[in-house]
Amino acid sequence: MIKDILIPFDRKTEIHGTLHINTKSDTLILLCHGFGDSKETHGIKRLAQLVEPSVNIFRFTFTDTEPNIKIEAENIHSIVSYFKTKYKYIVVMGISLGGLSSLLGTISGQNIDKLILLNPFVYLHRWIAWKYRKTLLLSILFAPVLKRLRDTLIFYRTNLRPQDLLVPTLLIVSTHDEIVSPSHGKTLFAHIGSSQKKMILDNEIDHGLSKEKYLKKVAAYITSWITK
Hints:
This protein has 228 residues and is of the alpha/beta class. Helix content is 39%, strand content 21%. It has one domain: Alpha/Beta hydrolase fold, catalytic domain (Rossmann fold, 3-Layer(aba) Sandwich). It is built from seven helices and eight strands. Strand 7 (169-174), helix 6 (183-191) and strand 8 form a beta-alpha-beta unit. Helix 1 packs across helix 7 (212-227).
């Protein structure tokens, strides 16, 4: 069963999301998409469908029109606040750039019980595909003159403290990711402070889970870890 939900964000904006309901579960996963995607992107929608038989999952579209990890982290905080009395456990899951927003949102927020990161982009100095690197470089170059970008970089530097991440954390990393280097996930894993952390290095899946078998494989990783 699914239900469309609007969650207030600020005076002018609402977060548009779809809740996949599992009445037998007291756990909710917040599914955070990556750069250029939305809650209706095939991989996001299909992953939610595959996980729904085991847990509740909420897929949503970030409210920023251009990538802004500060706003995205604040979106996550608003969603957690909305659901925190409705579910016993809240898990945040981020994919690609959504992984960075999820990481920073978890470190800077409250009431998040677990974190899952899939092929996360984390570090500004590590390799990503050129078409995304151009956007990143322009953001850095114009940050000194654009307050929005400057505030975003300050938020990034202030909250990128993986040693302070103490909730159970699962990283799923493609060893041959063609978009974001696996070194992002591997380096992050080494610095996470939680004693309950696990990393799965998968040599089959690609960055965007472009095949049904990749989606099913990741869904199995998620449900096995969440429900154990």
